[in-house]
Amino acid sequence: MIKEGLKVVLSGPSGSGKGTIVKELIKDDNFKLSVSATTRKPREGEEHGVHYFFKTKEEFCNMIEQSELLEYAQFCDNYYGTPKCFIEECVENGKDVILEIEVQGAAQVKAVYPDAIFIFVIPPSLRELENRLVGRNTETGDVIQKRLERAKEEIYLYREYDYIIINDNIERAASDIRNVITAEKLKSYRFDEDIKIMLNHKEDF
Ligand code: ADP
Ligand code: 5GP
Q1: Which atom of ligand 1 is nearest to the CA of 170?
Q2: Which of 69, 109, 174, 200 has the fewest CB atoms in 10 Å of its CB?
Q3: What number does CATH give the domain 1-30+94-205?
Q4: What beta strand segments (E) does 34-77 contain?
């Protein structure tokens, strides 16, 4: 019997390193990334269906109307949302699915899936966050400023999350997340079925 995979919600300010951590985690085939829909324009190197499903505002609104999204939110002038279908398919196949989403969306996921694991990634400092966003060189100066302002509001919400990961080192951050997931999988309630089978196995004593 395949045990259901976990739904892992990963939030954190833009530039904190979520994408880099996810890239590291999904080297392991047991992790699957939920690919979001967005109205944001693709960055150089981003591919439709791999990094995002890039949508017009009209297409995005259609997805909302057709109830195709598990959650959605507006973040710094663009819309982002999680398609429903992939999540259930993953966990039913025993894969752990990562939802790399911002705080408003995470709250919506919590309402639907209270058993999901909520992890918040923070940078070592706000100065380092700014350095990373500038260094990434994917946004203009004013978009970076908006994202930095939003970062402070998001960090205030850290207590909504189960775990905090300080990303001062990618390998350690990824390994901390793997450890969290290992521990979560050892929670007693996940063994209800195994224990029942063990106790009903009459041939053993
Ligand atoms: P997010 O997905 O949270 O917006 P990214 O993963 O794109 O953030 O990371 C932002 C920038 O910071 C990228 O240029 C990335 O290479 C860099 N970065 C990520 N983690 C670290 C780290 N631990 N130390 C130094 N730079 C990092
Ligand atoms: P970016 O434009 O840097 O790719 O993403 C901006 C923010 O949107 C990040 O905080 C990212 O986690 C978040 N985001 C990405 N996909 C989704 C989604 O499907 N739903 C929500 N609510 N946020 C998302």
Answers
A1: 23
A2: 200
A3: 3.40.50.300
A4: 36-38, 52-54, 69-75
